[in-house]
Amino acid sequence: MKVFITGGSGWIGSRVIPHLVEGGHTVVALSRSEGSDKIISDAGGIPIRGSIEDPAFLKDQASKEDIDAVIHLAMNHDNFGGEGYDFVKQATISSDAVLALADGLSSNGQDQDRHKVLINTSGTLSGAMAGFGGKELSETDSFVIPIRPDHYDAIKAKGVTPIVIRLSPVIYGEGDKGFISQLINIARTKKVAGYLGEGENRWSACHVNDAAKLYALALEGGKEGILHGASQMGVKGREIAEVIGERLGVEVKSIEKGEEHFGGFMNMVLGLDAPAANSITKQRTGWTPKEKGLIQTIRESQAYFASK
């Protein structure tokens, strides 16, 4: 197949491309700079300059006759969760991009023998925000988050096969700039590795390499549905704080003034209890995560604790 991917130069996307290439697929990836061009080329993809903020361009790329599938991973995560980060704006840009890509694929030679596939990216944490907090989110649980809908039904209505991969809030591994890196930086600065309440809240987690493999398996399977990028279904907040405290040699304790300690956005997501199941994902795709678990990775990592 020939695949167009957004976010191909990103942390996850640059790991997805080699899996696709190894599977015999040709990958064209959205690029926004010379640096992105190199990352994509080194991964085995073909860079094409454009912007995730240009729906007309995205529709045009997806509408090209030789494009069989689209993987949408792009979203601006620069300073994610930090001061000044506009989550609503970035989520809206990503949402508009999905619809443009679906429009392009829908006009691209659809017939009974050649179904086009669009793999969109969402998050298991959205389930907790939508009222599923406190229970293990299943791939069959349905919900809509207005600020970043997965557009499953809209994609399907256009005659395109929808696959939505809900990624864990904790995607970890070398190069991580997400929640774990932020928690480490906060603990280093505050001299305290903190958690909220009793620290019983759970987050699903997945190593970046295992997440990348799931995208390739989802594409090759080609079956519509919801999948969970969650190799670990629920890691407790206290366990994460304890291993961070162990590595930094700082106190580990419950934080009473969470917003003051963690910041508003981080405090909000830390308080969510958001475990996620993966049995349907494994059964449908044959996905078998192979990397070390989150706690062991943090305990053994040099990259997470390199001098800042």
TrEMBL record:
UniProt organism field: Kwoniella dejecticola CBS 10117
GO molecular function term, any single one: aldehyde dehydrogenase (NAD+) activity
Pfam family, one: Epimerase
UniProt-listed InterPro entries: Epimerase_deHydtase, NAD(P)-bd_dom_sf, NAD(P)-dependent_oxidoreduct
SUPFAM superfamilies per record: NAD(P)-binding Rossmann-fold domains
Gene Ontology terms: cellular component: cytoplasm
Residue intervals of the NAD-dependent epimerase/dehydratase domain: 3-77, 156-223
Origin superkingdom: Eukaryota
Name by which UniProt lists this protein: NAD-dependent epimerase/dehydratase domain-containing protein
